[in-house]
Amino acid sequence: MSAYIRKRRTLRLPITLSVILMTLNVVLMVCWIVLLAQDYKLSALTIGTIAFALSLFGLSFYVFLTIKEVRLNQRQANFVDSVTHELKSPIASLRLYLETLQLRSVDDRQREEFYGVMEGELQRLDDLINHLLEVGRLDAIGQETESEDIPLEPLLRRCAQTAAAHYKLDEQDVFRFDVESAVIHARPVVLEMIFRNLLDNAIKYGGDDPEVDVHVRIRDRGRVIIRVFDNGDGVPSQMRKKIFGIFYRGENELERTKKGTGLGLYIVRTLVHFLKGKISVSDRVDQPGSVFEVDLPGRTET
Asked: In the chain, what are the domain boundaries?
């Protein structure tokens, strides 16, 4: 509730001030036109009208930039809240289990269970740090290696195996592949980051028993279309462009049930554009869920 009030108040001031100034501008322009039209001073009327119109346009543009900046600041604040929560939660959990192991005598079964939880929390911290590092070096990712022809199906299956292992799931229970033999000329690390993030998200935001379909189709004129289908709740239409922006997450931090910082899709979009491709999201037509479609230059594997 406090976050909502803070957001509303932050936007209210620039919007209210801008509306007042724009209204004053319009009133002055109307008065100017009426007075000069009565005296038949057409040249002054023309110059004054153009000047008022330009000032109105400039003010409107300023309002647009101000609101855009405020919203970016809000997303940055959300991002800080999210990262803080993501860092503190596993650290608190690790501290609790370490203190338990130090202060209490536990049997071998409990000890192995504790070690498993601690390993998972360390992996969560490692994933978060890697995401932050990836965003910081997006411009340089993959520059240390040369582009090469990469068969797409083996790469997708490796990414699926990594994503399933991350959530301690069996890859064969989660993923179904319908893949035409395609090759994409790119740096391997770039493609791996794109599809690792997409497949990880498909599991994270899928149903309680996630099911992910991966389709690859080759189109004419050297384009390859990769679609990732999940069985989650889908993405509301008003959020479909916003989710690819940096810092953006769709819910209030206190209401979120999914872990993460909202950086994954920003990384995906940036790298897809780097490869001269396109990415979009839509609803599934056969059942609830989302379809993420990646359009990349490529060809049939020979």
From this structure: 1-136, 148-300
